[in-house]
Design brief:
Length: about 90
Amino acid sequence: MANTAQARKRARQSVVRNQHNSSLRSMLRTAIKRVRTAIESGDKAAASAVLQKATSVIDSVADKNIIHKNKAARHKSRLSAAIKSLA
Protein backbone atom coordinates (compact mmCIF):
# COMPACT_ATOMS: atom_id res chain seq x y z
CA MET A 1 0.00 0.00 0.00
CA ALA A 2 1.18 3.51 -0.78
CA ASN A 3 2.47 5.33 2.28
CA THR A 4 2.98 8.86 1.01
CA ALA A 5 0.63 11.29 -0.65
CA GLN A 6 2.83 11.24 -3.73
CA ALA A 7 2.69 7.45 -3.95
CA ARG A 8 -1.09 7.45 -3.51
CA LYS A 9 -1.47 9.97 -6.32
CA ARG A 10 0.84 7.97 -8.60
CA ALA A 11 -1.24 4.86 -7.90
CA ARG A 12 -4.43 6.74 -8.87
CA GLN A 13 -2.79 8.04 -12.02
CA SER A 14 -1.55 4.62 -13.05
CA VAL A 15 -5.08 3.20 -12.84
CA VAL A 16 -6.44 5.93 -15.13
CA ARG A 17 -3.53 5.60 -17.56
CA ASN A 18 -3.90 1.82 -17.65
CA GLN A 19 -7.58 2.12 -18.60
CA HIS A 20 -6.84 4.70 -21.29
CA ASN A 21 -3.95 2.72 -22.77
CA SER A 22 -6.00 -0.49 -22.70
CA SER A 23 -8.81 1.15 -24.66
CA LEU A 24 -6.34 2.44 -27.26
CA ARG A 25 -4.73 -1.00 -27.56
CA SER A 26 -8.17 -2.55 -27.99
CA MET A 27 -9.03 -0.02 -30.69
CA LEU A 28 -5.78 -0.94 -32.47
CA ARG A 29 -6.51 -4.66 -32.38
CA THR A 30 -10.05 -4.11 -33.63
CA ALA A 31 -8.80 -2.02 -36.57
CA ILE A 32 -6.30 -4.71 -37.54
CA LYS A 33 -8.96 -7.43 -37.30
CA ARG A 34 -11.27 -5.43 -39.55
CA VAL A 35 -8.58 -5.26 -42.22
CA ARG A 36 -7.87 -8.99 -41.95
CA THR A 37 -11.59 -9.73 -42.24
CA ALA A 38 -11.82 -7.55 -45.35
CA ILE A 39 -8.82 -9.34 -46.85
CA GLU A 40 -10.39 -12.75 -46.20
CA SER A 41 -13.58 -11.63 -47.95
CA GLY A 42 -11.47 -11.07 -51.08
CA ASP A 43 -12.68 -7.55 -51.92
CA LYS A 44 -9.54 -5.56 -52.67
CA ALA A 45 -11.27 -2.16 -52.84
CA ALA A 46 -13.05 -2.63 -49.52
CA ALA A 47 -9.88 -3.91 -47.89
CA SER A 48 -7.95 -0.87 -49.12
CA ALA A 49 -10.56 1.47 -47.67
CA VAL A 50 -10.47 -0.30 -44.31
CA LEU A 51 -6.65 -0.28 -44.37
CA GLN A 52 -6.62 3.48 -44.79
CA LYS A 53 -8.68 3.90 -41.60
CA ALA A 54 -6.61 1.31 -39.77
CA THR A 55 -3.39 3.05 -40.78
CA SER A 56 -4.63 6.20 -39.11
CA VAL A 57 -5.41 4.29 -35.91
CA ILE A 58 -2.05 2.48 -35.96
CA ASP A 59 -0.13 5.75 -36.43
CA SER A 60 -2.14 7.44 -33.68
CA VAL A 61 -1.42 4.67 -31.19
CA ALA A 62 2.27 4.63 -32.12
CA ASP A 63 2.53 8.41 -31.69
CA LYS A 64 1.23 8.00 -28.13
CA ASN A 65 3.89 5.35 -27.40
CA ILE A 66 1.31 2.64 -26.74
CA ILE A 67 3.19 0.50 -29.26
CA HIS A 68 6.64 0.99 -30.71
CA LYS A 69 6.90 2.83 -34.02
CA ASN A 70 8.60 -0.17 -35.65
CA LYS A 71 5.76 -2.44 -34.59
CA ALA A 72 3.32 0.02 -36.16
CA ALA A 73 5.34 0.03 -39.37
CA ARG A 74 5.41 -3.77 -39.37
CA HIS A 75 1.62 -4.00 -39.00
CA LYS A 76 1.04 -1.51 -41.81
CA SER A 77 3.54 -3.22 -44.09
CA ARG A 78 2.14 -6.71 -43.59
CA LEU A 79 -1.46 -5.62 -44.02
CA SER A 80 -0.72 -3.66 -47.19
CA ALA A 81 1.31 -6.58 -48.59
CA ALA A 82 -1.62 -8.91 -47.93
CA ILE A 83 -3.94 -6.55 -49.80
CA LYS A 84 -1.53 -6.27 -52.72
CA SER A 85 -1.38 -10.04 -53.00
CA LEU A 86 -5.14 -10.24 -53.59
CA ALA A 87 -6.01 -11.07 -57.18
